[in-house]
Amino acid sequence: METLGDLLRCFGGQPIPHCPGRYVLRGVAPAQKPTALISSHRGVTEHVVARARDRVVVTRLGESGEWGLISYARPDGTWLHTANTAEGFARKLADLGVALPTLRQSLPSGER
User: Fold this and answer.
1) How far apart are CA 26 and CA 82, in angstroms?
2) Neighbouring C-beta atoms of residue 8, cutoff 10 Å
3) pTM of the entire structure?
4) If residue 71 lies in a helix (H) or strand (E), which one and from where to where?
5) Collapsing DSSP states into helix, strand and coil, what is residue 45?
6) Quick check: 75 and 93 in contact, CB under 8 A?
């Protein structure tokens, strides 16, 4: 499994101003889906939320899904991906109003 540092190095992660623990991935082709960026994950969920104009796709990473990607799927088929530390991940998900299921609930039955 990759680390946050691996993702930031590989995809040109740049800190998001005034958002500690959050990084925009600038080196990603606009059409790349979140699962194309990583080798494994702990769960992927999609959300339509009032606080975001685009569909929000959350990819949980880390041993217990504590950090991850928050990606925005635009109507034109392009994506904006952000990588987040555990603190940045929790803070942004709370800001968006996204409550994630426990990891056990979010994994397909064959992966529990």
Assistant:
1) 9
2) 16
3) 0.87
4) strand 67-73
5) strand
6) no
**Beta carbons within 8 Å of 33's beta carbon, 6+ residues apart:** 71, 79
Backbone phi, psi, residue 72, to 5°: -115, 120
Task: State the CB neighbour count (10 A cutoff) for residue 41.
Answer: 20
Contacts of 61 (CB under 8 A, 6+ apart): 1, 2, 4, 38, 41, 42, 67, 68, 69
**Rounded Cα distance, 94 and 100, in Å:** 10
Contact 57, 73 (CB under 8 A): yes
User: Residues 45-57: pLDDT tens digits?
Assistant: 999 999 999 999 9
CA–CA distance, 97 with 67 (Å, rounded to integer) = 17
Q: Which two tokens stand for residue 51?
A: 């606080």
Stated as kind and residue range, the H or E segment containing 83 is strand 79-84
Q: Tell me the C-alpha distance between 80 and 69, whole Å.
A: 10
Q: For residue range 1-39, what is the model confidence (pLDDT) as tens digits?
A: 589 999 999 999 999 999 999 999 999 999 999 989 998
